[in-house]
Amino acid sequence: MNLKELYQEIILEHGKNPRNIGKTENFNKDAKGHNPLCGDSVHVYLKLDNKNKVEDVSFEGSGCAISMASASIMTDLVKGKEENEVREIINDFLGMIKINPNLKSKNLNDDEKTKLMCLSGVKQYPMRVKCATLSWHTLISAIDNKNEEINTEKFD
Fold it and tell me: What is the pLDDT of residues 96-114, one digit of tens each?
């Protein structure tokens, strides 16, 4: 199996069987996001402990396979990480999906980087970039306690 096939398999698996779907019990932060062009919607639920470590994270929503796979992968990768690590991973991912060919994060192991890299192909399809990044922007909004719905038309 070549790398492209592996990436497609990961996206399909997470798209069909998303991880961490549902509402996190006793969440203390949340945010909603919407991609009006594609119709994707996501609600991210976050439970940070008293040291700002992600105790639990989940999402509810609907959308295309890329949107759902990205949200699923994101929740898998940030669970158990500290807020500053999560922010660094988000910035690294958003950079990779738009500009940089590689991930630089020291907060991800090789398997985690492979999961994220499977989404790198969407940069060839600008409309799909918004599908892949919706949940990530929504997670930032949840961490920052913003009270406005994320709309993909408002960011690049």
Answer: 988 877 788 888 999 999 8
Counting residues of the chain whose pLDDT is more than 70, the rounded percentage is 97
Long-range contacts of 112-115, Cβ-Cβ distance < 8 Å, separation of 24 or more: 112/77, 114/6, 114/10, 115/10, 115/73, 115/76, 115/77
Identify the burial level of 100 via C-beta atoms within 10 angstroms of its C-beta, where 0-12 means exposed, 13-18 middle and 19 or more buried.
middle
Per-residue model confidence (pLDDT) at position 1:
65
For residues 41-49, average pLDDT: 97
- 128-150 residue pLDDT tens: 899 999 999 999 999 999 878 88
CA 21 to CA 74: how far, in whole Å?
12
The answer to whether the CB of 40 falls within 8 A of the CB of 63 is: yes
Whether domain 3-144 has CATH 2.130.10.10: the reply is no
Task: Return the structure tokens found at 107.
Answer: 């907060």
Task: Write down the domain spans for the chain.
Answer: 3-144
3-state secondary structure string across 6-36: HHHHHHHHHHHCCCCECCCCCCCEEEEEEEC
